[in-house]
Specification:
single chain; 109 residues; mainly alpha; elongated
């Protein structure tokens, strides 16, 4: 009796993993624009806001003047994130966005 196993899904995942950029130490290194990391669908699912821009504005920040991720690390914005999401702070929201983005890259979702 011969058993055949379809490994095309595993092969696709392995290829996608091989295609991820790495830094000099061999760690996966992605430089992802905010709009790609926090697409509208992600923001609607996790925040109820239509977009990252709408979320940031509602949280009292000016998207045009944000210079880096540290600008989101304020008590006021942390309170806003914890009130309007299931996350305690922006770092947790950011981590979830990273996980979902990486999963989409690996699994081709």
């Amino acid at each position: 009796m011969e058993i055949s196993v379809d490994t095309s899904g595993i092969d696709r995942i392995l290829k996608n993993l091989d295609d991820l950029p790495e830094d000099e130490d061999g760690n996966v290194s992605l430089d992802v624009p905010a709009g790609e990391l926090f697409p509208d669908a992600f923001m609607q699912k996790h925040t109820g806001f239509a977009s990252l821009e709408a979320f940031v504005i509602a949280g009292g920040l000016d998207p045009e003047s944000v210079n880096g991720w540290e600008d989101f690390d304020t008590k006021e914005f942390t309170d806003f994130v914890s009130k309007h999401t299931r996350f305690a702070n922006f770092q947790e929201l950011f981590a979830e966005a990273g996980k979902e983005h990486l999963a989409a890259k690996i699994f081709g979702e």
